[in-house]
User: Fold this.
Amino acid sequence: MRTLEHSKTTRQAGASRSGSFRPDVQGLRAVAVGLVLLYHAGVVPFSGGYVGVDVFFVISGFLITGHLLTSIERDGRPHFADFYARRARRILPAALVVLTLTALALPIFAPPLSLAGQFKAAIATALYVPNLWFAAQDTDYLADHAASPFQHYWSLGVEEQFYLLWPLALLGLVLLARGRRALVVAGIAGLAVTSFVLGLIATPWNQPLAFFWLPTRAWELLVGGLVAALVLDRPPRAPRWIVVAGGWVGLLAVVAAAVMFDGRTVFPGTAAAVPVLGTAAVIYFGSVRGPLGPTKLLSIEPVQRIGLMSYALYLVHWPLLALPSMSVPGGVGGLPLWQRLGLGIVLAVPAGWLLHRFVEEPTRSPRGLTSRPPRLTLIAAALATVLMTLGAVAGLTWSSSRTITAGGEAPAPPIVRRTPRWPRRRCRRT
Assistant:
C-alpha cells in the first residue's frame, strides 16, 4: 500500500541524488526537528538539542549537491533558473507565511520599547540575512532566554546564502577537475576543511560571528555535499558489519551530542564535528540498504510523517514559544515546563501539519507553482519578498512613532555598559 511518505511530494523531499527515495534521510529530518523542539521546550536530557540544526545542514548539503551534480553530469551545467525556482518553492511560501503572522502578532505580545528592534529583525529575515543581523547584535544563541521570535530563521539565512553561491562554485570545481570524480571530491573536501578551520579560529574570538556566519558554517553543508559526491551511483564497498556499525555509531553520535552538550559547550568549534560527522555517517552507510542498520528504525511510519513536515514544524514551533514569553521575566526559560511543552510541541505539531498541508504541499504540487515556468516563480518570489520587506518597514515606522509618543510615560531604559567589541571575550568551556 502506498502511504503518504511515498507520495511524489515525499520522494521530492527526501530523494537522493539518483532520484530514489531515502527513508533514512527523511527519518533524520524527524530526528533533527525533534531535537530542536525538545531543546527549545527545555527538556533537560536534551540540553544540546540545538545540534538538530547541524543535522539539517548536512542533509541539505547532501540533497542539493546531489541534484546539482546530476544536472551537471547529465547536461554539462546546472539549470540555474530551475534550481533557484525549486528552492523558492521549497522554502519561501511557508517561511513568508510564518514571518507575516509573527510580525502581525508582535504588537500584541512585544513590549512597546522592543517593537522597533523586533521589526528590524523581521526586515533582515525578509531579506534573507537574519543570521548576519543576529551576529551583528552579538546574540548568544545558547544563552539568550529573551530571544527574538525570528531568531530561528538564522539557519534558513545560512542555507539560502549557501544555495545562492554553491551552484556556481560547484560548476567551477567540476570544470577545473575536467569531470574527474576524485578531483571534485578533493575540491569539496578542501573547501570544507577551510571553512572548518575558519570556524575554529572564529569561535574563541567572536562566538556569535562563528555561530551565525556562512563562511564558518558552510563546512557542515559541504560535508553533506562530500557524501553526495562519494556515493554517486556507487554505495560504499565495505564488509556488512562495518556498514551496519557505521550507521548506528553515526546516529548515536547525534543523540549523544544532544544529551551531553549544553549552553556551556564551546560551539560550533570542534564540538560541531560530532553531530555533523554522525549525520554524514548515517547517510553514507545508509546508501547500502540492509535490515540491520538504523534505516529500519528511521523508516517507521510516525518518524517518516514527522520528517515529512519537519520544515513546517521547525518554522512554527519557535514563534509559538517566543511570542507569549516576551513579557515574561527570563523569556522562554521563564515559562513553566508544561507551558513550554504545550506551546512548543503539543500545539506546534498540528500547527506544523496545517502549514505543511495547506501551504507547502499546494506550492509543490503538479498543479501548483511547479506547473509555472521557473522565471515566473522567481518573479513571484521577488515580489513577495519586496511586499514582506515593505510591510516590516511599515511596522518599524509605526513602532518607532509609538515609542516616541509614549516616551513621556515610559521609563527610560537602563544604561548598559558594554565591553569593547574587540577583542572578544573567551567563551565558557566545559
Q: What stands out?
A: The chain has 18 helices and no strands.
